[in-house]
C-alpha cells in the first residue's frame, strides 16, 4: 500500500494515529514515518530523509521554510501542547501548584523520566526548569533520559522505582498506556508549544500530504485534537 511519509515531533503521534482510518478512506493511502525529538526530525529532513510532510514546532517550521525544505504556503498550525507531569497509573497524582511544590516533588522522586534534553522540546525545557529551581545537580543522578517522550513514558510505565515521575508533552502522556497525566507545570515553569504542519519541498505525494494536514486541523476533528492533548 502506498503511504504518505511523516517526520514529526512525538507530540503529534497520537493525533496522527487517530486519523489513519479517515485518511485512508479519503485518499487510499496509509501513513508512515518517524516520530521523535523535534530537533532530530528537523535534522533528518535536512539530511534529505524522504518525507511528504513534517509536524514540528512553529519555530522549526519557519526555519525549514527559510531553508527551502518546506513549502511556505502549506504551513498550518495544528495546536498548542503543554509540557506536563506524568505518574504511573497505580500511583497517586502529584499536586504541583507552585515552583516550590515542583521542587519538592522532583527532590522526592527516585527516578525522573524525560526525553532528550538537547533535541526535544520538553526535554530542553525540563533541563532549564531544573536549573531555574536550583536542583539540576541534585536530580542529575536520578534522570532517566530517552530519545523521545514516547519512549520515556513507556519506560515510566514499566518502572520498578518506588517513586518515579515523568515530564514530557501532554499528548505523549495521554497516548501511553500505564501512565496518567498529573498536571501542567506550575506558573513560572510552564511551557505551551505550538505544533505546526507543512508539506516538504521534496514531497512525493504533495496533494495527499496537504489532505492529511487538512484532516489534522479541520474543525470536525477539534474534539479528537482535544482528547489527544492539543489546545486551540
Descriptive notes:
There is one protein chain. With 232 residues, the chain is of the alpha/beta class. Helix content is 40%, strand content 27%. The protein is built from eleven helices and ten strands. It has helices at residues 13-18, 20-27, 38-46, 58-66, 99-108, 121-133, 136-139, 149-157, 170-174, 206-217, 222-228; strands at 3-9, 30-36, 53-57, 76-88, 111-115, 143-146, 164-169, 179-184, 192-199, 230-231. Strands 1, 2, 3, 4, 5, 6, 7, 8, 9 and 10 form a ten-stranded mixed β-sheet that branches. The two termini are 34 Å apart.
Proportion of helical residues: 25-40%
Overall body shape: elongated
Mean pLDDT: 96
Structural class: alpha/beta
Number-wise, the strands total 10
* Radius of gyration (Å): 18 Å
Please tally the helical runs, counting DSSP H or I stretches of 4 or more residues: 11
Quote the distance from N terminus to C terminus: 34 Å
Q: Biggest sheet, open or closed, and with what strands and sense? A: 10 strands, mixed
The string of secondary-structure elements, in order, is: EHHEHEHEHEHHEHEHEEHHE
Content of β-strand = 25-35%
Low-confidence stretches: none
Task: For the structure shown, list the relevant keywords.
10 strands; 11 helices; alpha/beta
